Amino acid sequence: MPSADSSDEPASFFLTTPIYYVNDAPHIGHAYTTVAGDVLTRWHRQRGERVHFLTGTDEHGTKVERTAQAAGVSPQEWCDRLVEDSWKPVLRTVDAANDDFIRTTEPRHEKGVQRFWEVLREAGHCYASTYEGPYCVGCEEFKLPGDLLEGGLCPVHGTPVEMLSEENWFFRLSAFSEALLAHYEANPTAVQPESAYNEVVSFIKQGLQDISMSRSSVAWGVPLPWDASQVVYVWFDALLNYATAVGFGTDDERFAQTWPADVHLVGKDILRFHAIYWPAMLLAAGLPLPRQVFAHGWLLVGGEKMSKTKLTGIAPSAIVDHFGSDAFRYYFLRAIPFGSDGSFSWEDMSARYKSELADQFGNLASRLTSMVERYRDGVLPAPVPNEQLSAALQQAASDADTAIDVLDLQSAINAAMGFVRTVNNYVTETEPWKLAKDEARAGDLDAVLYCTAESLRAAAVLLNPVIPKACSVLWSSLGAEAQLGPISEQRVDQVARWGQLPAGARVTKSDPLFPRLDELSDAGGRETAPGG
Ligand code: MSP
Known about the structure:
four-stranded antiparallel sheet; binds 5'-O-[(L-methionyl)-sulphamoyl]adenosine; Isoleucyl-tRNA Synthetase, Domain 1; alpha/beta; elongated; six-stranded parallel sheet; single chain; about 525 residues
């Protein structure tokens, strides 16, 4: 939750995704984090909050350096190409409304990184020493012996680790064990879900070791300001994006106004960096800690984390080209509890597209708009109260809002879709097509048409953060755009006030919101993951 603001200024909400490695093109696992962040962003905006949604790319380090080398181009050329051709376009593919996109090769970031580590060294938090131990290039992470699988393999990538031995600079992480523990004991929701919280606390309780924060064997990075033979270790460069993007090191006033972040969304594989190293760095610099780190699960293929390296990555456009961006956004958040792992399957996606988006939501919208056109020449009858529907709406809106506060995106969607089901049942039970045949029941028909349209108005507002394209089409076809203004400005916290659509709104039949799709006859040619 954003902090309560005593002034009249709306609360601000600062939300981040991890910054993505540019060694390869995005797959749906990456887009999953971005979409979750985007749904939260849109929901908070529709609460009237000022939201800052940050995403970007992590461009330094061994992995990118080697990939560029193999492709025969400079690391900078490689990064520019991947960012422009793959990473920025995927935001449009999934319809993400981010406010900023930070690249770690930008001067605003590099300056901030140097300033930060200079401050920490001056405060005595860094010292020179020798590092020896296993390193996974895939994770860009120094591993502890207990982390490895049998045969010395990385547990995330299943590949052999490399043994490193070099002179470099260390960060006194061990000095922050107690402060971190005290912070987490006082703030049990600072890491979520609970399983992630428990993992972090038990890791800290085992005792934290000082950690190497620079590398001498890597050239592609931010040089240490006090030792030009070293670059900042890529994670201790990347984590700082959250601060440099909002002005750390370049615009102190902006930084003071925006920091700390309200939520860092991360995959569970990068929890330790965000919930231990990053807050320890901030404590060392005397800066406030992020309010929450939320670790979501993995999209799996054959029971393993989907990844391009293992050739199991599916490009977001492969799904969006067929189902559309709304269905992409809806499916992953609706089908998988946020925080758990889940498998993607074309069959499950097709089934939910049809039964939930097309049959429940799209069909209700086209039934209502065509009935108003046919029976009332497209003019909405006057508002009438409806206790059953208003109560269901009240409940759905409040359930969804509460769920969003704890990042339970699945329950938020279920609450809104549960309301859509209630409205469908209402239409089935009241049988407006029969009322239309009986002149004496014109008043009843008016009431059913109004109540259904008004319910759809509310459903569009509640579902807009998830399926913005369809909701905006519905919004216009209800005549709501002309009467109530843009859908993005409709408040989710006022959605349950009944009777907002005025009499006389011009209702027009639109094309189906979720049209029938050809069967996925070519699915055999796609990379297909088992359902589950
Ligand atoms: N560059 C680091 C993050 C630095 S943040 C300061 C990194 N990049 S990544 O590209 O490998 O991963 C970015 C995000 O995508 C992570 O949150 C990761 O968990 C997520 N995912 C990558 N593969 C995924 C799945 N198969 N499923 C769900 N999320 C996945 O780590």
